[in-house]
Specification:
This protein has 388 residues and is α/β, with parallel strands linked by helices. It contains eleven helices and 17 strands. It has three domains: 262 residues, Purple Acid Phosphatase, chain A, domain 2 (4-Layer Sandwich), CATH 3.60.21; 54 residues; 56 residues, no CATH class. The strands form four sheets. A six-stranded mixed beta sheet has the order 6-5-4-1-13-14. Strands 7-8-9-10-12-11 form a six-stranded mixed beta sheet, with helices on one face. Strand 4, helix 2 and strand 5 form a beta-alpha-beta unit. It is globular, with a radius of gyration of 23 Å. The two termini are 37 Å apart. It comes from Streptomyces ficellus. GO terms for molecular function: exonuclease activity.
Length: 388
């Protein structure tokens, strides 16, 4: 069985206010061409089809066109909802669409009901695990804890129970939208720490032949059998060094996996440049970035006059301007920024409590109260996303 694994299309998303709709359309053209050129048997889309719960109409139209083209290609598609999608909206008409070979899996209650496809070696069961927000699906799975690992483990128990009742030799594939421990994130994924620790161990997926993951935007293999396809386009400058690809995966008759990366079209390269403004404007080594989308970090001690206007004379596609004045290590502002770097909201709040108390940080009940407060805010935000 030859599978094309992709995810995180984020249809409707822009890049620093630049529309990516044309680039997303070009990617979908490339996807359909790859399906035909590589004799793909099934397309896997591991969530975040849209960028938000209520996508703009041009994004919906692009998605509709993509579904028609995939259906016309005669190749089945299995697709799940991600944390950016409204599962209910994405799943509207799923029963009818399934007749055309497009299998939308957006209902958490159906995780144990696979799409079964057949090749010369027998059946392959495809289980779609949509994004499982712990606070919203805990009761459905009877999870004792409202955490990502707890609900995903319960979902995988249903997968294994169904697989155990199938004929011997049935191979299995799971699609999931989740942050798996060991994955390398970027700045453009939305935080999913609501419900506790976001990362789940890869061992949660033990017992299946291939796991097609979505959520992280960098293509990566956590194991031979557990892989992120990454997003087909860069959605933040933190992805400047990403190679945007899809996984072409062959599943043999014994469940063995071989995979290769298929490159996606690049609408415009990204570049991050850093230094004093005059140096950036004069450096001949930066000539290669003059046609790129640019994020410029200026390190001038004082803010230069009209920096964006001057930058765009040489780098006309400059989209982001960051000021990071070079300061001595003992400068108060420099040390404060350093203290905040890579710290969670919870850690920052606890530091603030210690600061106003003259060094006495929160005790355990107070830490728990802070945790609940942050968790309640994130849960409310998640519910608002689902409600649209």
């Amino acid at each position: 069985m030859r599978m094309l694994h992709t995810s995180d299309w984020h249809l409707g998303r822009s890049f620093h206010r630049v529309s990516l709709l044309q680039a997303q359309s070009a990617f979908l053209d490339h996807l359909v061409a790859a399906v035909r050129a590589h004799d793909v048997d099934v397309v896997l889309v591991a969530g975040d089809v849209y960028d938000r719960a209520v996508p703009p109409l041009p994004a919906v139209e692009l998605f509709d066109t993509a579904l028609h083209r995939l259906a016309e290609a005669g190749v089945p598609t299995v697709m799940i909802s991600g944390n950016h999608d409204s599962a209910r909206r994405l799943g509207v008409g799923a029963g009818l669409i399934e007749r055309a070979g497009i299998h939308l899996r957006t209902d958490p209650a159906a995780v144990g009901t696979p799409v079964v496809l057949t090749d010369p070696h027998g059946d392959v069961a495809f289980y779609g695990l949509p994004y499982l927000e712990p606070a919203l699906v805990r009761d459905e799975f009877g999870a004792r804890k409202a955490g990502h690992e707890a609900v995903l483990s319960a979902a995988m128990e249903r997968v294994r129970a169904d697989l155990a009742g199938r004929p011997a030799g049935t191979r299995s594939v799971v699609l999931a939208h989740v942050f798996v421990a060991g994955g390398e994130p970027s700045d453009s994924e939305r935080d999913i720490t609501v419900g506790g620790v976001a990362a789940v161990p890869a061992g949660v997926f033990d017992g299946v032949d291939y796991v097609a993951l979505g959520h992280l935007h960098g293509s990566q293999a956590l194991t031979d059998r557990v892989r992120y396809s990454g997003s087909p386009l860069a959605y933040s400058f933190s992805e400047a060094d990403h190679r945007k690809t899809m996984w072409l995966v062959d599943l043999d008759g014994d469940g063995g996996i071989t995979a290769e990366r298929l490159d996606c079209p690049v609408p415009r390269p990204l570049a991050r440049i850093r230094g004093r403004l005059d140096d950036l404007l004069a450096d001949p080594g930066l000539t290669r970035h003059e046609d790129a989308w640019v994020e410029a970090t200026l390190t001038d001690a004082t803010r230069p006059a009209e920096p964006m206007a001057r930058l765009t004379e040489r780098f006309p596609h400059t989209l982001s301007l960051v000021f990071a004045p070079e300061r001595p290590d003992d400068e108060p502002l420099a040390s404060y920024a350093r203290r905040l770097r890579d710290r969670s909201d919870q850690q920052i709040a606890e530091d603030f409590v210690a600061h106003v108390r003259g060094g006495a940080g929160p005790d355990e009940p107070e830490r728990a109260a802070l945790y609940r407060a942050f968790d309640d805010v994130r849960t409310d935000m998640a519910r608002r996303e689902v409600a649209g």
